[in-house]
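Marked as duplicate of an earlier ticket. Keeping the data here for the record.
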Amino acid sequence: MFRRFENLIDPFGQGPAGAPAPTLWAYLKQQLTPYRRWLPWMVLTGVLTALMESGLIFYSGRVVDLMADAGPADFWAVHGVEMMLALACVIILRPALVGLNHLLLEQTLSSNLQEQVRWQAHRHLLGQSVGYFQTDFAGRLSNRVMQMGPAVQESVHMMFEAILFAVTYMLGAVLVLSQIDWRLALPLVIWVGVYAVYVRYIAINVAKTSERWADGRSAATGRIVDAYGNIETVKLFAQDVEEQRYALSALRRLQTRFQRFLRMMTLLAFGSIAVNGVLILIVVGPAIVLWMQGVVSVGEVAAASALTIRLNGMSGWILWVTIRLFENMGVIREGLRSISAPHEVVDQDAAQDLIVRDAGIEVKGLTHHYGNTRGGLDGVDLQIPPSQRVGLVGPSGAGKSTLINLLLRYRDPEGGEILIDDQPICAVTQSSLRAQIGVVTQDTSLIHRSVRANIMYGNPGASEAEMIAAAKRAEAHDFILSLRDQQGRTGYDAHVGERGVTLSGGQRQRIAIARTVLKDAPILVLDEATSALDSAVEAEIQKTLMGVMQGKTVIAIAHRLSTLAQMDRILVLDKGRIAEDGSHDELLARGGLYAALWSRQSGRVERVVA
């Protein structure tokens, strides 16, 4: 039975297209869209449950009056049938109604909504550009994703289970008291109005305080995770104390914001007790007076007293629930700053998959300054015929990495375009574009999984034999067989740690090369691909890479010019433009910037050897 209600919703379905709604209520409405068929049933069962609760208290007063009127001898004979019907409602109807309400709230709604929110938030963030993640803490983003789920789930659950129940119960109490005497209902109505104003005042302040608290929590998490993620750098530069100070400042700020939140809780407790005392005075007192005047019965006084005492206990619960609701809303608003940000790089509505025939690349008037007036690329025109191997050299900031980032559509250019086989890359899907480009970068990061999973990332459909062949071509097979992790897993099953920290730089690089070899894409980008390798291994890998390059269009970046000497063509970038273009021998013969760079590196090598 539980599973049937749990499976009414698929929390990991497609979800809404585009960015999540940026405002609180629009976002909640968006998240509740898959549940729209079941929401009316949740409302109906919740309302009926609350009305039955207030009705039971009213009926208990009637029972007192019936007992007083009939006496012990005749009570069962006169009212036995009515009592049996009332008992059936209490034993059968009420549990069934409450059970159905909780099945819908707990199994259908709560068990799915939390992970639905997290999944959709994570999926949307994965679609953000690389630049988006470069400007924020990974820890803060992950913290917001994880906090959003329970905040949304608790908020919606409280709206249905607590707020709806409480409002309906109060209305039922007013209705019951008005049936007894309108002079008992009027004070309750006034009290409810005052109570609502008080709750609203406290809740608004709590929401603001909670949002600042959540923001401080995310900032502190971001700083702590940043230190853990860069622990080698922290240790290398002996910055343990500085990292402690950096985290401590965020934790002190978090403590201050939490203390402000707790002050609101203390005011809440004090105000709640005071307001509840007034409720007893203005309802029970008049009920006793009316009984003394003979206007109401003892049973009606008992019902009014029971309703008031129940409301007295419920009012504190209602206030706490409302505060929690607004607290969660503060968390949601804070999370929406990241979660609802639209994607900076998006596929066009009519985007098609890239179809690579020859892998020719054409660059037309390519301009990108990262929103500044300088840096990046400035009107670059370039043709790379199919299967040509091109080297990129130039000083730092010349635009080499910018060209690669734009080719991969990590960013969209501010001007101009890039075409592959006459297809503008802005008009094709990002996934199909990147599927046709193999990349090995200088800063190799591996995922915290097995060696096998890391290599198979290049081609999940490859066979075990193909995966091992790729590792052998990358000169990685032998060292992989010797690996053993802390859990005793060996070889290709050994896990590499976060970002591959359990491996040396050269080992990480060779696994990354194996991954790219297995991908076997028609376009190959090498960004300082052998920079982390020692000279002996580099020579072997260079041979491997030359073999991998066969039949592919290649763009290689290298500061060590000797690694580019065998390229078909070398482009020298300077200040965002192509300063020189030609083969290694041609550029040396010109005696320009490339020749100067070559001479400088060759001279340095000769001095080192001497």
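See parent ticket for discussion. Confidence is low (pLDDT under 50) at residues 604-610.
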